[in-house]
Amino acid sequence: MKVTVKCFSQVKYALGTDDLVLKLDIGTTTEILEKVIREKAGGKLDGVSLRVAVNQKYVPENTELNDGDEVAFIPPVQGG
Amino acid sequence: MIKIEIINSPIIPFISDDNRQQDGSELVFNGRVRAKEHGEAIIALEYEQYVGMAKNELQQLAEETAIKYPIHDLFCKHRIGRVNVGETSLHIVIWSKHRKEGIDALSWFILELKKRVPIWKWAILVDGSRIPSKCDHEH
């Protein structure tokens, strides 16, 4: 299955891209994908807490992903 | 009534309404860009949003605020893109019968905005470089 990872702020800075399209095994969870993203960042996201949104809604940890999902690992927000 | 706008241009304030006869309190808040971020001089902030989710979260938060506190109306504009030092990035107006519920609602709304609405700041430094803001507190 394929998912799109949207990158913002520190995630965008660490990965150098606005989004990634990744091919994942069926049953992949947000927790597994977060590990993949942190590995790709090569340590630049160490110490950065990330919340997860799937299809533009916050989801609990370890949510199972589906084909076509849009995932965002959301660093601490800073509006205002 | 709730009114939420995320805009990519200078904020034009909501018009003060002299026809309200039930609202004894009209609170106006303008959040402005300071000249320093974490002690470092900047010339501007650039606000980034998660398009779609940011507006949905802001709308939901405003609706929750109006349920949690007995206010009548909450209007909010958040600016996205480059905002120079001194300019307004966030504009909120809350109307309520008395000031206390309005002040409480305003305080909670901003606190929650800074926890859950997916908007981020990039600092534009004096040399023109652009880095993610380190600011992740709830001031």
What descriptive keywords fit this protein?
heterodimer, A: 80 residues, alpha+beta, Ubiquitin-like (UB roll), 2 helices, B: 139 residues, Aldehyde Oxidoreductase, domain 3, four-stranded mixed beta sheet, elongated
Query: Low-confidence segments of chain A, ≥5 residues, pLDDT <50?
Result: none
Mean pLDDT over the residues of chain B: 94
Supply the number of structural domains of chain B. 1
| Annotation field: number of helices of chain A | 2
Report the sheet-strand fraction of chain B.
35-45%
SSE arrangement:
The complex is a heterodimer of chains A (80) and B (139).
Chain A: E1 2-6, H1 9-15, E2 19-23, H2 30-40, E3 51-54, E4 57-58, E5 70-74
Parallel strand pairs in A: 1-5
Antiparallel strand pairs in A: 1-2, 3-4, 3-5
Chain B: E1 2-7, E2 25-32, E3 36-37, E4 40-49, H1 53-68, E5 71-79, E6 81-84, E7 88-96, H2 99-116, E8 119-125, E9 130-132
Parallel strand pairs in B: 1-5
Antiparallel strand pairs in B: 2-7, 3-4, 4-6, 4-8, 5-7, 8-9
Helix pairs in contact in B: 1-2
3D architecture notes:
The complex is a heterodimer of chains A (about 80) and B (about 140). Chain A has one domain: Ubiquitin-like (UB roll). Helix content of chain A is about 20%, strand content about 25%. Chain A has helices at about 10-15, 30-40; strands at about 1-5, 20-25, 50-55, 55-60, 70-75. Chain A has a 5-stranded mixed beta sheet with strand order 2-1-5-3-4. Chain B has one domain (about 1-10, about 25-130): Alpha-Beta Complex (Aldehyde Oxidoreductase, domain 3), CATH 3.90.1170. The two termini of chain B are about 25 Å apart. The chains are: A alpha+beta (about 80), B alpha+beta (about 140). At the A-B interface, helix 1 and strand 4 of A face helix 1, helix 2 and strand 8 of B.
